[in-house]
Specification:
Length: 441
């Protein structure tokens, strides 16, 4: 009889640890749902916290009223992108609109999505930072307070958005290594679906193109594959764009509210306030003649008018726009507003949850910056990551208020480089070598 203990390679061991991290992630998130009782979604504001605008649209779909405005006008809308409202409406149709059963089902699905994200994140981190840092990142994301909060604490599209983003970046990195056309087709498809959750995720397309251009293929092949990736994205986004054109008679690529977002951030009332202070609503800033002019406009026409108004103000006040944008950039990365998150944490988790949420973002940022610098110094393939970090926040630098949830889609990827920084500080032996096969980028 052979009594020898089985032996595992470092790769086998790290993969097993990543699976354990995914299991831990699921258990921790389920504990938040059932122990802290987050499935008791408040009914305040006609169940506003049950998915917010997307929840309202999902209710309309489930009740057979179609894709209509979340603000009670009864008119068709493109206020929010379609993927999450339709997914949520499916749950409502089976388990009841705004019912406790629907809340449990949705939150459990989000917990499973969080666990799947752990393993995808591990696979991506192996390529960006090495297996040792990947294991640290996997366990870190499993218990990271904001990640647990968004998966198990509230009904939100953020967990699915983060999972699809991680899949896109992983597929882009795999294509860079293998140059298999099927991989880039999958990357384009997943990136487009992510954009149908949140159009800010369109910045994933340049990340895919960057990976294509860095692949070990001829220039002609890179250009051809880049074109294929763009075509896939266009094909996926076209049906929703066509629907919007049929409904509104004008071009609305994904969502219609950019004009209102910018008009609320770029106006005289905001310019007189401190950065980050909320001011009057867009409609409260209108003159009587403007209110008369916009009366009767539908959602899309109104937002097009508001967009022109905001851009006109920005051209007239470039210095103030720059000042506000720099301030909001600082808030996005460092002084993120945790007000709503802390209120939710206090209701369900007490002072410990409040402290954990408040400290998570700045601590991870400091480590991630160090890890990103270290990854570049070690010759690791960090170009796509750096491009994602650069492009994703740009739209939030011109928004009125920087909410805590706006930075969350970046957190898993910041965790990867934070984990690399922590691994480099450890005295334990390494189980992987730097990505020396990649030139510095």
């Amino acid at each position: 009889m052979n009594d020898r203990m089985p032996t595992y390679s470092s790769q086998d061991l790290s993969t097993r640890l990543a699976l354990w991290a995914a299991a831990l992630s699921f258990v921790v998130r389920l504990a938040v749902v059932f122990v802290l009782g987050t499935w008791h979604v408040p009914a305040d504001g006609d169940h506003w916290a049950f998915g917010y605008e997307m929840g309202r649209i999902a209710r309309s779909i489930a009740e057979g009223r179609g894709y209509i405005s979340p603000f009670g006008t009864g008119e068709p809308t493109a206020w929010m992108p379609p993927l999450y409202p339709y997914l949520l409406s499916g749950v409502f149709s089976i388990f009841g609109v705004y019912s406790p059963a629907s809340a449990i089902v949705i939150l459990v699905i989000q917990c499973a999505i969080g666990a799947a994200t752990v393993f995808i994140l591990y696979a991506l981190a192996c390529r960006w930072a090495g297996r040792r840092a990947a294991v640290i990142a996997a366990f870190g994301f499993a218990i990271y307070p904001p990640a647990v909060y968004f998966s198990g604490g509230i009904v939100s599209s953020s967990p699915l958005s983060v999972l699809l983003t991680a899949m896109t970046l992983l597929l882009a990195q795999v294509y860079r290594e293998t140059a298999r056309i099927g991989t880039v087709l999958s990357a384009g498809l997943v990136a487009s679906l992510t954009a149908l959750l949140d159009p800010v995720s369109l910045v994933l397309l340049p990340c895919i193109l960057y990976a294509i251009l860095r692949a070990p293929t001829s220039l002609a092949t890179r250009l051809r594959v880049s074109l294929i990736a763009v075509i896939v994205a266009v094909v996926v986004l076209t049906p929703w764009t066509v629907r919007n054109y049929i409904v509104f008679g004008t071009w609305v690529p994904i969502k219609s509210n950019l004009g209102q977002e910018l008009a609320g951030s770029l106006n005289d009332h905001v310019a007189r306030r401190k950065c980050g202070e909320s001011g009057p609503s867009v409609f409260e800033t209108m003159s009587p003649s403007e209110k008369e002019l916009t009366a009767g406009m539908d959602e899309v026409v109104l937002n097009q008018w508001l967009l022109k108004r905001a851009l006109h103000w920005a051209r007239a006040h470039p210095r103030r726009v720059l000042e506000l944008s720099l301030c909001r950039a600082a808030q996005f990365w460092w002084q993120t507003d945790f007000g709503a998150a802390l209120e939710q944490a206090m209701r369900h988790g007490g002072p410990l949850a409040k402290t954990a949420l408040a400290l998570s973002y700045p601590a991870i940022l400091v480590l991630a910056v160090g890890g990103l610098i270290l990854a570049y110094w070690q010759g690791r393939p960090v170009g796509s990551a750096a491009l994602f970090f650069l492009l994703y926040p740009l739209i939030y630098y011109v928004r009125l208020i920087t909410l805590y949830r706006y930075r969350y889609p970046l957190e898993p990827f910041l965790l990867i480089f934070a984990a690399l920084a922590m691994a480099s500080l450890s005295r334990y032996p390494r189980v992987d070598t730097p990505g020396s096969s990649y030139p510095n980028e």
